[in-house]
Amino acid sequence: MSFRVTPHRSYELGLSNSQSRYAHSAVLNQQVSSGLRINKPSDDPVAQKLILGQNAVIARFETQLTTINSSRTVLSEANENLLDAQQLMVKAKTIALDASQSVEPTERTAFINELDSILSQLEQIANSQINGEYLFSGTQLNTQPFTGIVSGNPIYHGSDFASILTIPGNQAIQTHYSGRDVFQPYGSGQLTILGNNQVQSGTGTSTGSAITTLTLQHTSTTYAVGSGVQAGTGSVAGDTILGPAGLHKLTIHDTSGNGSGGTVSLNGGATFAFTNADSNLKITGPNGEVVFINTQSITPGFNGTVDITANGSLSIDGGVTQVPIDFSENQLVTGTTPGIVQYFNTTNVKSTGTAVVEPAASADVFQAVISLRETIRNSENLSAADRENSFERRLKQLDAASDKLLNIIGKQAVSLENLDTLETRVTSQKLNAETILSDAQSTDYFAAITQLQEQQNLLMFTLQSLTTLSSVSLVDFLK
Amino acid sequence: MSLYNIGNSAIRANQLALQTIANNIANADTEGYHRQRVSLAESVPYQYGSLLMGTGVTVQGISRVVDSATEQAIALNLSSSGRAQVQLETLQALEGILTPGNSSLQSAVTDYFNKIELLASTPNNSTRQQEVIAAAQNVAFQLNTVQSQMGQLQSQLTGKITDAVGQVNTLVEQIGTIEKQIQTAHASGRSAPTLEDQRDNLVKELGKLVDLSPASLSHPDSQILAAGGWLVVRQDSPKLVVQQSADGTVQIVYGASKTPIQPVSGELAGLLESQQQIVPEVRAELEAWTRAFIGGVNKLQATGLGAAGPQTLVSSTIGNVDPDAPLAQANTLFPISNGLLAVSVTNQSTGEHETLTIAIDPSTDSLRSIVSQLDALPHLRATLNSTGQLTISSEAGYAFDFAGRPSSTTNTALITGTTVPTVNGVYSGSKNTQLVVTAQSSGQIGVTSPLTLSVTDSVTGQVIRQIDVGAGYAADQPVEIADGLFIRFSTGTMNAGDTFTIDAISDSDSSGFLTGMGIGGVFQTTDLRSLTVNPDLLSNSTKLAIGRTGNPADVSQLNRLIAFREKQSLNHQTETVEDHLASLTANIGVSVNLQQAVTGQLDSQYQQLRNRQDSVSGVDPNEELLSMLQFQRAFQANARYLSSVNAALDDLLGLLR
Fold this sequence. Notes:
The structure holds two protein chains of two kinds. Chain A is of the alpha+beta class. Helices cover 44% and strands 20% of the residues of chain A. Chain A is built from eight helices and 20 strands. Chain A starts with 6 loop residues before the first helix and ends in an 8-residue tail after the last helix. Chain B has helices at residues 2-26, 68-98, 105-121, 126-187, 193-209, 214-218, 267-302, 367-375, 513-517, 535-539, 556-566, 577-617, 621-656, and strands spanning 36-42, 46-48, 51-53, 57-64, 225-226, 231-232, 240-244, 250-254, 259-261, 313-315, 339-347, 353-360, 380-384, 390-394, 398-401, 421-425, 433-439, 443-444, 452-457, 463-468, 479-482, 485-489, 493-494, 499-504, 523-524, 532-533. In chain B, the strands form ten sheets. A four-stranded antiparallel sheet of chain B has the order 20-19-17-24, with no helix packed on it. In chain B, strands 7-8-9 form a three-stranded antiparallel sheet, with helices on one face. Chain B starts with a helix and ends with a helix. Classes of the chains: A alpha+beta, B alpha+beta. The interface between A and B is large, with 71 and 75 residues.
């Protein structure tokens, strides 16, 4: 049985096929005109997901490049500042070398003025900002990191923790360094004590970099019972001895036999006559130490030696905070200045006085310059030898501080290099992502135009065949 | 007169045949027309003597040339196509809504996270903070737009369902009427091919709308059953009625009993499935994505600290929670699980803060019991209003946060020495724990060598670190004791056995209570379909959570957001929130393609069936013209026969003249 196909059906099929060709042509035309192979998810769902993913990745890479650039700006600015600071340290070292040879007061004044200028510049560097944020206050971006640099009492107010830039998938990079790490690290190092050899550095870990003046002050003197001798009325203010019981000794001879008079000597020194009328008799020992005694109640007939207990206090803030001397190997002394804790060995302390305490502070940038200024100023009137030693220490401090800065500068340079590498990598990754995106998304013009031509041909063939089919009819043969 | 009768019958039969051919040619392009044929038969013979003589030709009837099986298959194909086409249109509409572009939900989410990353590099930059908030607003706008468009699509579908039901009711009535006319014609012995064509066309129209019972179609005399067999197609059939419930879902009911019916094919089935399943399922997927996205973002905002520091007043944005029901039964948008909530209360004049934790068990704790616990914390007030809205406030001079940062001071009850430990930093460990710090020996901070402290994780029981704070340790120098947590010791002493504990809080709202109650997040929503950005953030961008300490450069919370961006938390831990959104979009494309394949296949079947139908019922003008020639010749022959008979009779009558 033959399969009947009517002209009506032929036209229907022709129309349907033509519409199909035309619809396909329209899709290809859209691809060519928009340049995009995929204009809606159903065009290629898998590719659509890939496109969305790559678009997100590219946008993220662009964000990371922006982040890298802004971080590089911060780091470069910090780096420039530290290079300036390091140059200032070099300049300070030159001043130190010149000043160590100088004896002219006016020249020293000039050096001091130059150091003041350096400190002022260091203060500006340490408190430098970018976009309103401090470069060297760690995570406390809004807090001015340092005060008191020029005045010689630098205090850090920032955070101990650096700001970290984390680029996902890459290493963390420090951007805003902690000022403590850069300029003023924890720990004093070994304390050098000048001017009073009785006090030595303790074994405890001292903190703070500032040079301090240690004041050993007398507070009370007591005498072993039996002799009847007592502290004189001027003892508290006038006694210069310090020490536990027995370190100092008073020798009394009651020559009258009834306590009305005799002789007394301190630590085997010169003898002094006393009477039972003396309430504040000054006795000087062989090393110039002084005690004031009251001999009004000397035990009649006393002849012998009396152990003296002389108590005192230590202070590193000019007497504001006084710590009783305990004559131990690790005497802890703190003051009103935050962050300064110093340990002293007071086992050999014998007399009152003052001592200059210089923390090694080998990496404290500010203290290196401040200490140099103090050394040039020599307000403690150090001997020439001590002063020479002091200059040597200053030079070492300056070298150490300079090295510390160079170390940080080196770290920054590495970070900057890492950022450059990171930028190159992210740029490359972005390029790859853009290539993938383009491959997935962009129209293959050659293929699209070829297909479009094919569809046009098919459309023409469809229409032509319909025309041909309909051109023959039985009607033409009916007369 | 049989001589005339024979000729007359032949003339009449050929004339009818020619009329039928003319009708066929006239309807050659009429949609649904089936070619007709005249059925001719010999007339009943009469007996002439011993002979049976023929009496001519009889027109038995005019009938359609129909292949019933093909017609039935076409009706069923149209029904399936109707359903598939509507589903395809719905999916294409959804595809259009979700098609990504320069301004789409996908790009808005990506932009939001990118702005977060930019802010992490310059956390103190107020413009960047504003950009993040603007990006959040864009996310809310895009999501609201998508959900709104989907809502409109559902409304349009409801309208189409109502229209389709109206068409079904009209068609059923029309078919019933024609069916009655056909039955009348058949009862009187007449054929009614035109009426049958009309009926078949209407049945196909009905089939496009609802499913038809194949069994009922295969028996010409049986009544047609539609819509799963519930709808009997006849003139007096009860009407279908659309019922819409309060939640927007639509139901079609039938008859006085309001029996719900569910067509299995036809446009109505497609519309119902679109309205009840396809769109709701996509919306549900989007809501699940929204829950995951907002849940993550809001939690990190609520448990972080911005430059503005701790707050003094917060309120929940999700009301209508039964305050006395266990939280597990409260049906919160975001689940509340067994965990803790850490609250830090800060003395604003000293800056010191104390962090306390509340254990939350949703199977036993109600909102009211949590409020009581919060209210019992020092310097904190927690209240519930009549609608179940929770408000937390602090006493004057105090503020609070949920960042879970370590307390300013440690509990020194078990320290017999004189040193005072302080803890700071940001714990970056992955799990909440308690660290126990114990002195292993006695000595002086910064002096004794060694003066060792052990740090033990109380959860695992393992010693995670040992630190020496004796000689070489500078008093008040921070020493790391755990991931991101640092401890400092003042000068003083510590004795062997001295101990203290530190809460190392990684997740300060491991219960999800804050998110569940809508407290302090970036986004606010009551239904996951409509989002707004927290007005507190809009009015003060410094409230945007950057870290967990309040330090301007502490970007720990932003880094967590970035980690959240990268975490594969969805689709069985295989996709990030961005990936999943892309998958949602791509999946719609897959569904469209699948449905296009289905409609394409059905269309192909339809074309085959139409070819078959046309090969049987189609009008071929050439064929008709040939038939016309045939009947024309027959007509002419019979006319000549009558003429001859007439001439013969004339001759016969002439004999009489």
